[in-house]
Amino acid sequence: MKGRRLAGDTPRGDPHPPGGAEPYSAGVDGSARRSIVAASLCADYSPDAVTAALEQALGVLGGLPRFVPPGATVLLKPNLLSPRPPGEAVTTHPAVVAALVRLCLQAGAARVWVGDSPAGDHDEGRLWRDTGMAEAVPAAGGEMRSLRGAVTPTRCGNRSVPVPAWLPEVDVLISVPKLKTHMLTLLTGAVKNVYGLIPGRSKSLFHGEFPSPRRMAGFLTEVFGVFRPALSVMDAVVALEGDGPANGSPVSVGVLLASTDAVALDACCAPLLGLTPAQVPLIAGPAARGLGIAEPARIDLLGDGADRLRAARLRRSRGRALQHLPEWAFRACTWMLTYRPEIHPGLCTRCGICAETCSRSAIVRDAKGRYRIHRAACILCLCCLESCPHHAIRVRSPLLVLLRFWRWLQERRPPQEGA
Fold first, then answer.
1. Is 7 helix (H, G, I), strand (E, B) or coil?
2. Contact 174, 114 (CB under 8 A)
3. What is the DSSP letter of 183?
């Protein structure tokens, strides 16, 4: 990206503007480096409440004009996982994106683009419409940008990843993630959000190349290192808990978060799951590579929403133990437990998006037109679950079902005489 601002870059103008804190500072020897995460209370998604909360959070960081030069082209990168209505808390709320569009234009941006590549080959018109972006973004003065079409290869570690050919036109990248739990990575937030810059099916293919949660976290760290945003603004007004990122339950947290350090932002969210940042590979990995700060003692959580964030709790995913396993153990465990996604026939509309998404061609259509998952070919990347817009795919383990049934029988056995 031409002149793209990165986290840690010195914004234009006074590095310590009146009324604002330095968002990412370092001592002479680097040992005193700290990060700031701003948290603002936001009770709901009404335009006035969202705008006020954003202005307060961004004010802690010195104000949006620090990051958006006059005449800049800004890309807002929300989480648009699949065509879900905002109330399901699977995607970034359009009210947050629309407010940011207006604030960027007020700061002097010439163009504000909004775009994300969903999980699966979804129709973009439907994606934008169902997530509320099609109406909210143009009304605020922004433009929806497709991530389909021509791509340009970008070096990422020892490989190249495709990104939209228009991405080099962007001056400022602002990530706008949704706070959600994740079945394999525990948490999906600011760090993981930039993965959506890689278009469509390519993401599924990378899941096939890095099948275990540990290996995928390493690859996502490399991607984040290349596309580190200048600013991250997280929608945590209503978060998603449980079996995220697609099948969880909405839960009110009531804050909006902002930071130039995406790693520090995610680190402040880890305690909501009862975890330390070191226990989340997608936080510990980037921090170890110097891409951000994860140590709580070196993060200043500021703003009127700080106490609310500290008190909030999110129910973790059922698959949380899998991300700790090395690849060989991950494969053995999922094979022995037959821990696999399955398609619910009553909810499936036979749209075929899951089959198109699967990098292993593990989802096939039978003679009656029903989609089935070929268990031996499945690598448990869960791309099908993330891409399904109808909640028709869930993860189950028949062995665990049998164990629950056995316990149920044991509980109902009549007491033995003399016991």
1. coil
2. no
3. T
295 pLDDT above the threshold of 80: yes
Q: Which domains does the chain have, with CATH numbers?
A: 24-311 (3.40.50.11440), 338-411 (3.30.70.20)
User: 139 is written with which tokens?
Assistant: 């009304």
Interval 354-369: pLDDT, tens = 888 787 788 888 888 8
Beta strands in 278-318 (DSSP E): 299-302
Closest C-alpha among 198, 1, 170, 185 to residue 76: 170
CA distances from 212 to 197, 254, 318, 393 (A): 21, 33, 16, 20
CA distance 304 to 38: 9
In a 13 Å sphere around the CA of 186, the CA atoms on its Cβ side amount to 26
pLDDT of residue 185: 85
- Contact between 90 and 245 under an 8 Å Cβ cutoff? The reply is yes
Instruction: Give me the mean pLDDT over the 311-324 stretch.
Output: 77
Q: Of how many residues is the chain composed?
A: 419
Q: How far is CA 413 from CA 410, 417, 419, in A?
A: 5, 12, 13
Report pLDDT for 180.
96
Q: What is the DSSP code string of 198-263?
A: S-HHHHHHHHHHS-SHHHHHHHHHHHHHHS--SEEEEEEEEEEESSTTTS-EEEEEEEEEEES-HH
Angle between helices 94-107 and 47-60 (to 10 degrees): 60
pTM (predicted TM-score)? 0.79
Paired with 257 in beta bridges are 39, 234
- Give the torsion sign (CA, 342, 345, 346, 347): positive
